[in-house]
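[step 3/7] fold_predict: job queued, chain A
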Amino acid sequence: MLALQISSMKLFMNQLLATDAFDLFLLQEAVITTANTYTIDGRMNRDFFSKEELENGSCPYEFQPWSEIRGLCFHLIKGKHTPLFFKFILQLNPQKAAALLKDHADADFSAIKSLVLSIRYDGSKAILTTATAQHTFVLSREADLIWDKALCAYLAYREIPFEIL
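[step 4/7] structure written:
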């Protein structure tokens, strides 16, 4: 697990909400507090989709792709006032996560359920925290280290400044 503090909120918020920078993620949960508090459960409601849509892949993941919901989150956050709080719990797209871990084939990652990124803003700063969700307990922290390193490299690639806490 790694905690990072974002150094440039304006740049980060632009990347998060107005570009495709975080479209590799699925949204597990969002909580946004402005004049009201909004809570979004990112779990896909399969009962909403027709049988044909499900067969055609309209709902391929357990959680909503960030790309499909970031516009709503942007709409809830934008305005004259800075949000009081927000929290986004994202998980790396399962295919991207599998590809990232497959590059390190010397270890068994079958117990890894997802690679998680938590973004928490408290009114003044944003802290990003990584985590690895697992199906069962494992002693190895190798997947955590791979995920931490990959996220830092990705933020650097997207020119999002941060400091490790």
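[step 5/7] annotate
The chain has five helices and eight strands.
The radius of gyration is 17 Å.
exit 0
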